[in-house]
Structures are given as structure tokens and as C-alpha cells.
């Protein structure tokens, strides 16, 4: 093994510092007993306490959770179907429709859905946001599921068919259990993407509906308050837990190879 | 193939529902937006009727003409491309050592080191913007330190927050993982024997990098560039929150057309121009990447 030059180590260490210092600062200041995010004054849980008494924030968190649950369930179902279809069958249109929402700038999807819902007289709110989230999550689930299928031994399904299983039985009892880790990883990914989404939600939520990212946006547009640090820290914790679960269920989903 | 008909039925049962969903909630809205870009803005926002009172179909290219003739829009567009380019190059400079180190570290460390790059990406987008509001804020240590140094040279204090600098730093921060991943995927496949051979032939570390590692990594570089450039070009939240009044980018213009001016046709034109430009530039990058190193498969492998 070639020894790495010191300069490479130093540059990479600086890169990691750049990635983590901002997040560490957010977490540290969430426990800081000062209204200003400028210097350390003393330890407090006060901002968390304030957060849990903030009605608007709780409503926003509830909305976000509800949307993320519905969006991840539906997009996992549709995304798994899309992943299987893209792997098994020669389809031309499906891969384009599945991958395009990921490839184009997010804002395009946001504004086109805004026009779509308004022209249909569809009231903007929780439902329109969930419908939009499902549309962009399908692709991510499909990619993970297809990758899992590609790593699977297809002869197992064929063996099941030879033993007399119909296509549904072969899928239900052989393929599905084998791709389950991919499905679960896709679902967790969809959940995280949905609960974190800002741009598409911003355009499809309408005036009266607030999700957690929209609430954070309107708070930081006005002023910097440690309450945002507290809610950010909790969100990071939630994401971290989801990632750990995903890595336990499907180690390959997070691995490089 | 005795199961022809059920086979085809199965295909439609499996691919039909996601296809239908994406047609309704992605393809049709996109087509409606393309159509909207050729229509006239309504008197109170939105769109004027498609067929006017005299029964004429109302389709025109007025909004496109407006975009290409009023120089203020071209300026914002050029500025957005400039910000996206600087972001892409900065990401490359920071991501390269990270990706190289991960690719060359022992196998058991790689997953962890890579995960550490991806992890911040999974924290909320707005949280990552907010973090820079704190760091660059006027009362924070950084601004006080910088202005302290400037004052000792007799230079007036500068504001770090609400500036183009803040926008760029955050753009780089948010997009960095997109550059590291394809670079790593490419660098990881390099054969270390090539570097040993070059060393035996007398190449120093710098020569080994410029003559071997870097040219071989170009497919990864271009893939990363495309992954950073496209989202960076359309961003609106970062200039909105961290930028000053003069840092408005094309994303902000689009947001303004839909939520404030309510000129849908022009907003649609801006969105379409943005998407076409992003995909074209990314396509060019991918094409150069493929040409620069022989086979399409190596570029494809690096993109994965």
C-alpha cells in the first residue's frame, strides 16, 4: 500500500471539517443560553422547551410527518413496481419518466405542478404536496429496487416458476423477500426526501399549509433564532436514526460497491 | 414462450400504475407548462383564456421574445451560469482530495469515509443554509475576525452575510457530495500499478497526478460537474436567504414570476430556458467526458 502524502491528508481533513463544522455549530448553539448565535454563554434546554410549546411548529411537524408517511408508502409501492418493470421488461417510456424528475432542476417540477393544480382548480394543500412528493420519490425507490434486483440470482425466480408457481406467487414468495432490503431502503429514502423537501413543497403547498421546511424557511427569512437550531438538531437526529435503520436492513444500499 | 399473453398482461400490471402516475403528475404538468409559455398572461395573474372572445386561439412567442430582447434577463441568466460554474470548479477542488483519499484508503475504512461525506447531505437543505447564516453573521467570530484584520489595514468592515460570497460558499457546501461520489467511483477503479510504473520511470508525485490520475479521472470529473451544475443553476433558496439584493439568480426570477408578479407564461419561459440550458451544458460535459476517454462504458461506469 502506497503511503499517502501529508498534503492529501491535510486537504481531505479540511474537506471533512468544511462539511461538519457548520452542522456542529447548529447543534451546539441549540443548547446555548443566548438569543444570539454568536458566542457560548451557558447550557440550556430552553430552546427545546420553547419549541415544544410552539403551536405553529408542532402543526408543521405533524403535516410533514403525515405527508412523508403517505408519500413514502405510495411511492414505495409504485417505485417498486417501476423498478421491477424496468429490470424485467423492455420498456422505453417508463425509464424516461422515472428518471427525468431526478435529472431536471427541481424548480421546474415545482412550478409545473403549481400550474397543473391551479388550472384543475385543485385546492393547494396537504394533498397536492403529497401527490407532488410521490411523483419525485418514485424514481429514487425505483433505482434502489432495480439495483437490488440486478444483484439477485434470477434463476431463483425461474426455479419457482418451474416448480409451478404462477408469476404472482413467484414474485410474492421468492423475488419480494429477496429484494425486501432494497424496498425498505427505498421507503426510508422516500420518507427522508419527502420530510426534507423544500422547493417542490414551496410551490405546491399554497398559502395556508405549512410543513417543517416551510416553517424553517419563514423563520430564518425573518431572523436567526436558536429555536431553529433546536428543530434542526431534532431533524438531524431523526435522519440519522433513519439512516442507521436503513444500513441495518440493507447494508448494500449505503455501500459504495 | 407459451405464456405470451399472461407475460404481456404482467408487464402492464407491473409497469402500468407507476407509468400512469408519472404521466398524470409529471409528463402532463410539464407539457401544460410548455404550452403555458406560449400563452398570454391573465389580467389578474395566471393565464388569459386559451381561446379569446373572437374565437381565435391565443398562442404566441411574446414571452420568449421578452426574454431574449430585454437584456436584464440575459444578465441574470449569465450571472446564474457564472455562479454555477464557480460552484462546480470549487466543488471539484475540494472534492478531489477527499475522493482520492477515500479511494486509496484501506477497504474497511472506505465505506465509513464515504458515509461521512454523504451524511451532511441528508440533513435538511434549509438547515445547511441556516448554518452559514450563523457562521457568516455579523456578530459571529468569523466576521469580527475578518473585520478586525481589515480595520488594522484601515479598510472599512465588510458584511459576509447577504453577499455573493455567502451565496457561493453555501452553493459549494450544499453540492459537494454530488462531486465526491462520481469522482470516488472513478478513482476507486484506477490500477495502482500504473502509478508504481510511472514512479519507477522517474515521474514525481505531481507528474504522476497530472499525467496519469487526472486524465483517467476525467469521466468522473465530468459526471460530477453535471451533477453539481444542474441543481446549482436552478437554486433559489440560497440567494433568497443568504444573498443581497444584487445576488438574485434565475431561480429567484422564476419564483418571483409565479408567486409575486403571477406572470405564468414568462415564468414558464424562464423555467424552460433554465432546464434546457442545464441539460445542454450537462450533456456537453458528459459528451466531452466520453470522448476524452475512449469508451462510453468507462464514462458510464464512472457515473455509476
List the helices and strands and how they pair.
The complex is a heterodimer of chains A (257) and B (304).
Chain A: H1 6-29, H2 46-51, H3 55-88, H4 93-103, H5 106-119, H6 126-150, H7 155-162, H8 167-196, H9 199-204, H10 212-222, H11 226-249, H12 251-254
Chain B: H1 4-36, H2 62-69, H3 71-104, H4 107-118, H5 125-136, H6 141-152, H7 164-187, H8 192-200, H9 205-233, H10 237-242, H11 250-259, H12 264-292, H13 296-303
Helix pairs in contact in B: 2-12, 3-4, 3-7, 3-9, 5-7, 7-9, 8-9, 9-12, 9-13, 11-12, 12-13
Question: What are its keywords?
Answer:
heterodimer, A: 257 residues, mainly alpha, MetI-like fold, 12 helices, globular, B: 304 residues, 0% strand, disordered C terminus
Polypeptide structure, described:
The complex is a heterodimer of chains A (257) and B (304). In chain A, 77% of the residues lie in helices and 0% in strands. Chain A has 257 residues and is mostly helical. Chain A has a single domain (58-252), classed as MetI-like fold (Orthogonal Bundle). In chain A, helix 7 runs antiparallel to helix 8 (167-196). The longest helix of chain A is centred in the first third of the chain and has 34 residues, at 55-88. Chain A starts with 5 loop residues before the first helix and ends with a helix. Chain B has a single domain (71-303), classed as Orthogonal Bundle (MetI-like fold). Helices cover 74% and strands 0% of the residues of chain B. In chain B, helix 12 crosses helix 13. Chain B is built from 13 helices and no strands. Chain B is globular. Chain B has helices at residues 4-36, 62-69, 71-104, 107-118, 125-136, 141-152, 164-187, 192-200, 205-233, 237-242, 250-259, 264-292, 296-303. The chains are: A mainly alpha (257), B mainly alpha (304). The interface between A and B is large, with 86 and 90 residues.
Amino acid at each position: 500500500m502506497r503511503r499517502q502524502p501529508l498534503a492529501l491528508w491535510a486537504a481531505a481533513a479540511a474537506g471533512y471539517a468544511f462539511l461538519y463544522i457548520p452542522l456542529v455549530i447548529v447543534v451546539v448553539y441549540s443548547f446555548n443560553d443566548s438569543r444570539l448565535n454568536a458566542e457560548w454563554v451557558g447550557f440550556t434546554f430552553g430552546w427545546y422547551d420553547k419549541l415544544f410549546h410552539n403551536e405553529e411548529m408542532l402543526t408543521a411537524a405533524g403535516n410533514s410527518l403525515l405527508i412523508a408517511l403517505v408519500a413514502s408508502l405510495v411511492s414505495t409501492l409504485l417505485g417498486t413496481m417501476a423498478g421491477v418493470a424496468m429490470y424485467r421488461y423492455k420498456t422505453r417510456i417508463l425509464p424516461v419518466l422515472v428518471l427525468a424528475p431526478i435529472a431536471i432542476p427541481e424548480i421546474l417540477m415545482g412550478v409545473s405542478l403549481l400550474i397543473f393544480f391551479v388550472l384543475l382548480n385543485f385546492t393547494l394543500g396537504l394533498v397536492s404536496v403529497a401527490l407532488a412528493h410521490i411523483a419525485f420519490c418514485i424514481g429514487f425507490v425505483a433505482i434502489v429496487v432495480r439495483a437490488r434486483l440486478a444483484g439477485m440470482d434470477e434463476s431463483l425466480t425461474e426455479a419457482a416458476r418451474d416448480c409451478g408457481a404462477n408469476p404472482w406467487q413467484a414474485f410474492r414468495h421468492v423475488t419480494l423477500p429477496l429484494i425486501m432490503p432494497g424496498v425498505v431502503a427505498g421507503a426510508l429514502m422516500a420518507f427522508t426526501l419527502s420530510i426534507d423537501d423544500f422547493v417542490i413543497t414551496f410551490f405546491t403547498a399554497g398559502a395556508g399549509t405549512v410543513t417543517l421546511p416551510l416553517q424553517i424557511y419563514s423563520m430564518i427569512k425573518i431572523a436567526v433564532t436558536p429555536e431553529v437550531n433546536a428543530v434542526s438538531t431534532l431533524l438531524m437526529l431523526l435522519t440519522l436514526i433513519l439512516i442507521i435503520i436503513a444500513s441495518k436492513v440493507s447494508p448494500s444500499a449505503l455501500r459504495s460497491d | 414462450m407459451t405464456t405470451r399473453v399472461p407475460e404481456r398482461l404482467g408487464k402492464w400490471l407491473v409497469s402500468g400504475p407507476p407509468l400512469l402516475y408519472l404521466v398524470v403528475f409529471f409528463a402532463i404538468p410539464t407539457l401544460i407548462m410548455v404550452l403555458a409559455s406560449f400563452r398570454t398572461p391573465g389580467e389578474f395573474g395566471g393565464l388569459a383564456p386559451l381561446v379569446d372572445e373572437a374565437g381565435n386561439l391565443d398562442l404566441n412567442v411574446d414571452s420568449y421574445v421578452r426574454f431574449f430582447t430585454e437584456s436584464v434577463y440575459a444578465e441574470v441568466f449569465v450571472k446564474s451560469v457564472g455562479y454555477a460554474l464557480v460552484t462546480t470548479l470549487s466543488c471539484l477542488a475540494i472534492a478531489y482530495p477527499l475522493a482520492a483519499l477515500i479511494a486509496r484508503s484501506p477497504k474497511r475504512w472506505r465505506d465509513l469515509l464515504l458515509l461521512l461525506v454523504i451524511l451532511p447531505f441528508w440533513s435538511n437543505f434549509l438547515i445547511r443554509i441556516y448554518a452559514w447564516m450563523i457562521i457568516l453573521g455579523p456578530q459571529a467570530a468569523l466576521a469580527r475576525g475578518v473585520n478586525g484584520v481589515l480595520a488594522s489595514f484601515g479598510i472599512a468592515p465588510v458584511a459576509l452575510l447577504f453577499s455573493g460570497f455567502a451565496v457561493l460558499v453555501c452553493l459549494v457546501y450544499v453540492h459537494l457530495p454530488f462531486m465526491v461520489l462520481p469522482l470516488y467511483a472513478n478513482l476507486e477503479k484506477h490500477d495502482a500499478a500504473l502509478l508504481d510504473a510511472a514512479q519507477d520511470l522517474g515521474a514525481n508525485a505531481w507528474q504522476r497526478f497530472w499525467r496519469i490520475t487526472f486524465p483517467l479521472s476525467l469521466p468522473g470529473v465530468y459526471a460530477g460537474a453535471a451533477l453539481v451544475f444542474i441543481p446549482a443553476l436552478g437554486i433559489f433558496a440560497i440567494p433568497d436567504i443568504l444573498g443581497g439584493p444584487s445576488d438574485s439568480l434565475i431561480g429567484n426570477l422564476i419564483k418571483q414570476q409565479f408567486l409575486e408578479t403571477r406572470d405564468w407564461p414568462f415564468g414558464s419561459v424562464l423555467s424552460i430556458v433554465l432546464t434546457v440550458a442545464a441539460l445542454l451544458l450537462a450533456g456537453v460535459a458528459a459528451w466531452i467526458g466520453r470522448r476524452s476517454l475512449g469508451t462510453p462504458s468507462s464514462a458510464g461506469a464512472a457515473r455509476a
